[in-house]
Amino acid sequence: MKRVDDFRLKFGTKEYVPIMIGGMGVDISTAELALEAARLGGIGHISDAMVNDVSDRRFDTTFVKDKTKLYKHNILNADKSTIKFDLDILAEATRRHVGATMEAKKGDGMIFVNCMEKLTMNGPRETLQVRMNSALDAGIDGITLSAGLHLGSFGLIADHPRFRDAKLGIIVSSVRALQLFLRKNARLNRLPDFVVVEGPLAGGHLGFGLDWAEYDLATIMAEVIQYVNTEQLNIPVIAAGGIFTGSDAVRFLEMGSGAVQVATRFTVSEECGLPANVKQDYYIASEEDIVVNTISPTGYPMRMLKSSPAIGDGIRPNCESYGYLLDGNGNCAYITAYNRELASHPDGKNIVVMDKTCLCTQMRNFKLWTCGQTTYRLKDTTRRNPDGTYQVLSAEHIFKDYQFSVDDQIALPV
Ligand SMILES: Cc1cc2nc3c(=O)[nH]c(=O)nc-3n(C[C@H](O)[C@H](O)[C@H](O)COP(=O)(O)O)c2cc1C
């Protein structure tokens, strides 16, 4: 039987191990994790979600504190529309996060940045433009556009000198979404360099409704590959979502997938940004503990552990400090839900908000445990410590297990 290592992802004349570690915000796919993927010859992702906060934590900048100070007067105001991102600061934070990561890069692989377009930041167009341009300025190898794909996004960076040399990719969940993007993008004469097809078992936000279980990645992949081949597009199509073993990956590579994008198995790696105790929560999860719900204010269903402390937590919206989910009019579905509950509890105490979550604060504090559908299998990938906890794995161990395993076997740590 073949191994993943028998295949290569080709971009022009360059070849890579066909394993891409998916972007996981907020700083769950850390620079350290992405750097390991690149060192091992594959592709890693950092994420630019809440990049001002990520910069503060990595480089001791004070971007969030400064913003909080600036908008402190608004904290009790239900109207958040005046809260804007300073575009120079956003650019600086992005350049720091991306620049430091790229400077540390070793090996033959690449590092991309995952840009979730649903982070509309009370100025969807200009903030996305700054995020993408600054990442290119700082030398990122490529950009993967996800969640909330805006059909004109490539156009926002068309004037950047690296527009044609950096790798630009998109995440879609249907052949229709890809067709729409290509049609809209045609005037730029700039095709995506890769297309990630994310199926219904992925972590994070889903490109499906609550009927996600009726879809299947292999079927969507077959449709996308057929379309790309018929149109002679020569774009690698990358399968994502629920690929748990090297053999799962081989099955997609054999059907014409250019690579696989994987994430869940790396949530329990040493390099992953989740706190150590949360990694144990991922390990102990059973299948019944994993839910897809609609509490994300983005409007997309999201998969998570139902023990996530974020669920039901009625904290005051923190837009003065964060505000990444504010739409172009300064609204966020969590603010609406919170204000509704506040109206029935005017003392502001014991507020419970079940239908939405304050995604910025909860992701930033690692209280919303988004995960892939295969999370309940993580316990089978490791050994237990004498104290009963599960052993955390190195990213290298997991990467190589994908790369070299056969017969659906999973290598346990030595
Ligand atoms: C903890 C976690 C966080 C994620 N966050 C993001 C994200 O911020 N943006 C994104 O495009 N995809 C995100 N994803 C999706 C992954 O990048 C990836 O495509 C998918 O999870 C692959 O499937 P797998 O987890 O079954 O391997 C996330 C996945 C996980 C597990």
Helix content: 25-40%
Which range does the strand content fall in?
5-15%
User: Main β-sheet, in a few words?
Assistant: 8 strands, parallel
CATH topology of the domain at 4-272 and 391-404: TIM Barrel
**Radius of gyration, in angstroms, nearest whole number:** 21 Å
Q: Which structural class best describes the helix and strand composition?
A: alpha/beta
CATH architecture type of the domain at 4-272 and 391-404:
Alpha-Beta Barrel
N/C terminus separation = 24 Å
* Inertia-based shape: globular
Mean pLDDT value: 97
Per DSSP E runs of 2 or more residues, the count of β-strands stands at 15
Regions with little confidence, pLDDT below 50 for 5+ residues:
none
CATH class of the domain at 4-272 and 391-404: Alpha Beta
Discrete helix count: 12
Bound molecules: flavin mononucleotide
**Spatial strand arrangement across the major sheet:** 3-11-10-8-7-6-5-4
Name the helix and strand elements from N-terminus to C-terminus, one letter apiece. EEEHEHHHEHEEHEEHEHEHEEEHEHH
Q: What is the CATH superfamily label of the domain at 4-272 and 391-404?
A: Aldolase class I
